[in-house]
Amino acid sequence: MLDPNQQFRGGVFHSSIPDGRIGADIRITPSEIIAEPSAEALTVMDPSQVARMPRWVIPLSECQVDLGGASGRMVFCRNKERDLTIFCEERGFAAMLGDRSGGMLSEQLHVVKKRQAGENHRFRFWLTVGVVATLLFGVIGYYSVLAAARLAIAAVPISMDEKIGSMAMQTIEKEQKLAADHPATKFVTEIVDRLKPHAAIPEMNFKVIVIESSEVNAFALPGGQMVVYTGLLKKAESGEQVAGVLAHEMSHATLRHGLQRVSQSLGIVAAIQFLIGDAGGLLALGSQAAQTSILTSYSRQSETEADLEGARMLHEAGLDPESISAFFDKLKKEDGDIPGVLVWVSSHPLHEQRIESIAKFKSTLAKKEYTPLDLDLATVKESLK
Amino acid sequence: MEVEIRNRPAFANLLVNLQPGDRIIAEADAMASMSSTVDMTTRMNGGLFRALARRFLGSESMFVNQFTTNSSGHIVLTQPFPGDIVCVELRGNTLFLQPGAFLACEPGISLGLGFAGLRSWLSGEGLFRLKMSGTGRIWFGAYGAIFTREITDEYIVDTGHLVAYEPTVSIRVGLAGGIFSSFFSGEGLITRVRGPGKIYMQSRSFDGLAAWTNSHLW
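The joint structure predicted for all components is written out below.
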């Protein structure tokens, strides 16, 4: 039930008040809205002014109500001449107004609320339109950048790949590099030599080094420089499995995925720059993480492309294309639960799909007798002990 | 406590003369110089969470400094950007400030943070606003000169120019004209304020400065 003597805190706008407004305590009687200066407002006022402060009255019968204010919930009551405004934001004020006016003011408030709701509705509509348009613009922009990057790369000479690759190579730890006449180095070099003639870019200068590390990993940098970790050789069961990994990695180089990554990253930075105006901090952050990780972590699409191109190279070189699947299938089955060990597999997602797509690709190739590699992995493994 | 706003409007600063018993609360880092007889105590701005909220949502610092003296002395308070400072006396009423505008106040004022809404955010006034209420004087600053306007009906302010407003004022965002003229007139979005009430505006905007600086970077 509404308390008839309830006081509300609010304020008054009137030209007679110094500064035009004052905080006030408001009561609603059955016939009038009465506002009196609040104690707080009076304490800081000149005593002579206090004596002249009247109380302000708006008869309910001629009151015009409106809603607004910063919160949208402030109730404004104006007199007929509209030179006196009593306002209040407290809960219950509107209900009390409605109650005391016998519903008349509730109806006025209802009309105002409906108008407000309409405005909110329109605002939300245009906000949604704005957000959708911005997103659409962003997505279209993103894919345009990607497409433009692909086109641009085709025009860039291979020497650019080599430069970028050499720069990245400098940042790789090579203290544990095995000598060129080490059996492991000879082993991988021979495989690369066998695959080389079948690469999509015949003039690409493939070079491979072996680094002693427990990491099961191998990668190719733009331009054809490759790194194989001894951990991978120890895990492999056959020369074909190593050839599978190398063919896949060589394909990244001939398909120029590293350069795509760089140009995409630059494009994304440029896009962010355009959208938020400052990518300086982001760039600094990016250049740290960039280098090798950007050059050798590819999109899912790039991985699939490298799988199929690698399979084609193996096939042409007279090796079983399914060697690619064989190696990571083995790793996945044996050590799939150990995180961190399997860098090469973990960076290559969607295991089953890949095995399937390679098998499918193989079935489209002309039937061919595959000749196994005449290489002795066992001796290599022995030399790594 | 006697407070003088000096060097208006470009490089306004406050000269506060303190007598025993006087206290003034100022934004952290606002003090430029002070007498050796003035004591400074730092306190968190109304509890950890309110302080954190003010820091991260209201672009103000987590801490405020309180200055007192046992004999007499003065302090000089400044704001980080060039522009005017104004004094407003609250008598139990409330004033909303844009984030970052607060400079100093008397102890009777409470500093709060309120959600200002998406409209306020879109109009460049921030998703949150500082809510100053209580009894006493507050000083706040702006970038450029500060001018006020008593609005009774609707008035249009460009985004980023509104510094402070009374709670009786409502804010809406709108396009400056049609779609075409809004994008190509350089006005873009505008803020429609609706009275009654008083608004404080700044003659320069930070967005304007940023855009101008950007255009000279390349």
